[in-house]
Amino acid sequence: MKDAAPRVVNDPLPQAPGLFAHGWNGPAHKRKETTMSKETKPERPLFRVTFSSVKTEKDGNEVVGKPREIGAAWARKNGKKGAIIALDLIPVDFGKGVIFLLPVDADA
User: Fold this and answer.
1) Considering the domain boundaries, does residue 59 fall inside one?
2) Is residue 36 part of a domain?
3) 95: in domain
4) What is the pLDDT, as a whole number, of residue 34?
């Protein structure tokens, strides 16, 4: 066997600029720091969307049932007028009921 040159264990690899820019062979990519403002509020819906079924009693009077929350109405982006209603549930008796929009409390 020929005499091999001794191997240097902790010899760093020569690095060209941009070579091994990320990963375990070189320095990690620097991430941009983001500062969060403490004044930002989480986005909240404008209204809660509730549904109540309407049933007719034997004497002909219509009775509104207990309201159930089925979704929310969100403000549109970029100052556009109106709201977007996102329904989580669609009641089976949707055609035989009423929808209520209840304002969301700003304090809650």
Assistant:
1) yes
2) no
3) yes
4) 63
